[in-house]
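User: Show me a protein chain along with its predicted structure.
Assistant: Here is one chain, sequence first, then C-alpha cells.
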Amino acid sequence: METTMRIVPMPRIYIGDSSTTLTIVLVIGAIVGVLWVLASARHARDRRIRREALSRGHDAGALQQDHAMHTSAAPAAPAAAAALAAEVGSAPAAPSHAIAPPVPPRPPLPPTPVRPTIAARPPEPSIDLDETRVSSPLEAARWTAVLADGRSIALSSPTYIGRSPSASTEHPGATLVPLDDRAKSMSKTHARIVPSPEGIEVTDLHSTNGTTLALADGTRVALIPGEPRLVTSSAVVSFGDQQVVLRGRPS
C-alpha cells in the first residue's frame, strides 16, 4: 500500500498589511517591556542586598564577587553594575558626626578715631615782682579831668567832650565824655583832650562859643579852633557855661 504525503502550505503573513504590522510591533514592544521591568526589579533587589551587606561590615571584595555573579544573570545593565562596583570599592566610610557649616567671617571692626594731639603750651615767663618796671612818658605824668558834677576821668587816651560827642576817624577808639548842658552853650563835639609826653593838649573843634584856658598863673587864653594848645600844669577849661578842671599828677 502506498502512502501518499501531501504538503500543506503554511499561511503567509503579508507585512504590507497595516493591521498585521501594528500587531507585531505591539507584541514585540510588550515582550521587551516585560523583560526590562523584570531586569530592573532584579537589579534593584541586588542593589538593596549589597547595601545591607555593606552596612553590616562586609568587605568590598565580597561585594564585588556577589556583583559579578549577579551581573551574568542580568546582562541588561552591565554599565550600571560596573559603576556600582566601583562606587562600593571606593566609597569612603560614613562620618561619625555631621560636619558643621563653615562660620562666616566676622565683619571688620570700625577704625578707632585718632584723637588730635594737643600741643603743649609754652611755659609762661616768670614775673619778678621786685623788678623795676620802665614806664612810658605818658604814664610818668598822669592827668585827670574833674567835671562839674564831681566825676573824675583819667586822661590816658584821646578824649572828646561835648553835649553828645563823637570821635573822629583819627581816634576811632577815643573816650567820649558827654556833659549835661541844658542851656546848650556847648557844641555837640566841643573839644578834644589828648595826653602827650610833655603834658596834655587841648584843641577846640570849631565850637560855636569857643574854648578858654585859665592857667595856674591867672592867665586866660582863648584857643584857636583846630590848633592844639599844650598844658603842662593844672588848668581850668571853659566850654561855654561848663568848666572842667585839668589836674596833672607828675611821677
